[in-house]
Write the structure tokens for this entry.
Amino acid sequence: MQRPATPNATVPDTARPGTERPPGRNDPFHARVPVPFLAQVFAVMARTPQHTYQVLTKRPGRMPALLGRAGDGECPLARHAAPGPDAEALAGQWPLPNVHLGTSIELDRYARRADDLRQAGAAVRFLSLEPLFGPLPSLRLDGIAWCIIGGESGPGARPLDLGWIRELIARCRDAGTAVFVKQLGTVWARQHGHRGTKGNDWDTWPADLQVRERPRRVTP
């Protein structure tokens, strides 16, 4: 279970462009995260356009009410921002072009999270399909720019059926969704005699799984 974010809305300590997690830790859309703090987090991201932020949650149902619905072009969260720089930052271009919104889906019973994510305005919507524990027949990919797929790692890791990945790659191709296969997991690594514990040495993978694409911006 993802824990609520730790209040620490600080600007990354480098001006060099990079890909960052949002300020704070864990799930920023947890119900226990104060809305004014979330406004502060998004204001920080708005003021640091040199960085690309990946905002991942298991609770995308909160996104439309706080960040606006797809096509709205405005940020309801701005009403909760502190007067001054934060409010001004959130009153500009929306959705923020440097913020990618994503949700985690590990089993088909959570495929509805993608439906919630689709309702939120975003420059890029992505799915973290890791650790993947089964096929995802109910998952719709329209409006999703990027899928990150991976197996479970660590002690007690469960096996990953490579057929699940192949099916998802094919469906992403049909939908025009970029695919990034991150790792095949600990079980696969051990079965194939690899010293790594995550199965992330892609040079040893089957050729058809060696796919690491980056997303393109979709219509907000």
